[in-house]
Design goal:
By secondary structure, the protein is α/β, with parallel strands linked by helices. It contains 15 helices and 17 strands.
Length: about 400
């Protein structure tokens, strides 16, 4: 059961509502690139408009480190949102001060205002009470719909939530249900697929999921560290030397629950043009490196995925940016898409991979948050969620 208040629980008629959205999107030449995160916020925005609210949207963009940097302005986002939603979106050049206050006060029901990047102020990342108070003074109610920053305790999500009546938006609620409740009450067999470069980034996730899943399928650069921990020579492959002991411990603890690749694609250099070949698992020859999982591994993983009921996937199986070393990641993506399972794709590169494979429509849920989804997979409580009002 979802324990926080959602926007269904409050009355918004005639109210000014401060909505923390996650509009941290790529901007290329002053235009929005991938607008997935903007579109993900539309159901909440539309619902609040329909309920008679005046909306003040707030977000960060990039890492301007508390300084005003024009390349991190949200102005192009306001323009893009206006096109997507088919109505004007006002824009304030600052999220604090007179300009924010005056524009917010003049806002009528059914209108939208987007404030400038919250991270142009040092107080945002410090969760500064003065900044939170100033943001809160713009509105009557606070709605958090930014799952992507829910793992951070900042002024615009945690600070404000303590000062106004608060609720979760539809996107935040959906993310928490899929990444929290799906995992807590997963139908078995429950399989996790973990990839990416580093074991150290995923120790907490592996440890948490060992107690919940039936199998964990490992790929990506992190598999090399597990191989090295078993005594294989990895030559020029990416290996985290300082994580070898941890890898040994995880292998001992996991037993046969942790599945490693049975064959790998090795390359003569780190480039798409490199000479490459598929080899069974063993020592990697000098001067070569592992860049993907092999066909036999894809087939083995696919047959495990096929028999499962719940699948959670975080991290690619190889260097999928290079077409020659993307087959493992796309093969696993295809297996997940073809299986009759509840499938949750957790943030970051795995999302890019599933979209590139053209399979986004065939999975149950694609998370909009990288770091936040990882922390949920670790079983952590997210501060941005904890700060919201309980039902």
């Amino acid at each position: 059961m979802f324990k926080k208040k959602t926007i269904r629980d409050l009355d918004f008629k005639g109210k000014r509502v401060l909505v923390r959205v996650d509009f941290n999107v790529p901007i290329n030449d002053g235009k929005v690139g991938d607008d997935t995160r903007i579109r993900a916020a539309l159901p909440t925005i539309q619902y609040l408009l329909d309920k008679g609210a005046a909306l003040i949207l707030t977000s960060h963009l990039g890492r301007p480190k508390g300084e005003v940097k024009p390349e991190f302005s949200l102005a192009p986002v306001a323009k893009h949102l206006s096109e997507v939603i088919g109505m004007p979106v006002k824009f304030a050049d600052d999220c604090l001060g007179d300009i924010a206050k005056e524009t917010a006060e003049s806002l009528k029901a059914g209108e939208i205002l987007l404030l400038e990047n919250t991270r142009f102020h040092q107080g945002e990342k410090k969760n500064d009470p003065a900044m939170a108070k100033e943001l809160a003074s713009l509105a009557d109610i606070f709605v958090n719909d930014a799952f992507g920053t829910a793992h951070r305790a900042h002024a615009s999500n945690v600070g404000v939530a303590k000062l106004l009546p608060s609720a979760a938006g539809f996107l935040l609620e959906k993310e928490l249900i899929y990444l929290g409740e799906t995992i807590a009450n997963a139908a078995h067999p429950f399989v996790a697929i973990l990839g990416g470069a580093k074991v150290s980034d995923k120790i907490g996730v592996i440890t948490n999921l060992l107690g919940k899943t039936d199998q964990i399928l490992i790929g990506g650069g992190m598999a090399n560290t597990f191989f090295a921990a078993q005594g294989f020579q990895m030559a020029d492959s990416l290996v985290e030397a300082d994580a070898l002991d941890t890898a040994k411990e995880l292998l001992a603890k996991a037993g046969d629950k942790l599945q490693l690749p049975v064959d790998v694609v090795i390359a003569s250099e780190f480039s798409n043009q490199a000479e490459y070949k598929v080899v069974p698992l063993g020592d990697v020859p000098d001067g070569w490196r592992i860049l993907d999982i092999g066909e036999a591994t894809v087939a083995a993983y696919a047959s495990i995925i096929q028999k499962s009921k719940t699948v959670v996937w975080n991290g690619p199986m190889g260097v999928f940016e290079f077409p020659n070393f993307a087959k493992g990641t796309f093969g696993v993506a295809q297996a997940v898409a073809d299986a009759d399972v509840v499938s949750v794709i957790g943030g970051g590169d795995s999302v890019a991979a599933i979209k590139e494979a053209g399979l986004a429509e065939k999975v149950s849920h694609i998370s909009t948050g990288g770091g936040a989804s990882l922390e949920m997979l670790e079983g952590k409580v997210l501060p941005g969620v904890a700060a919201l009002a309980d039902k």
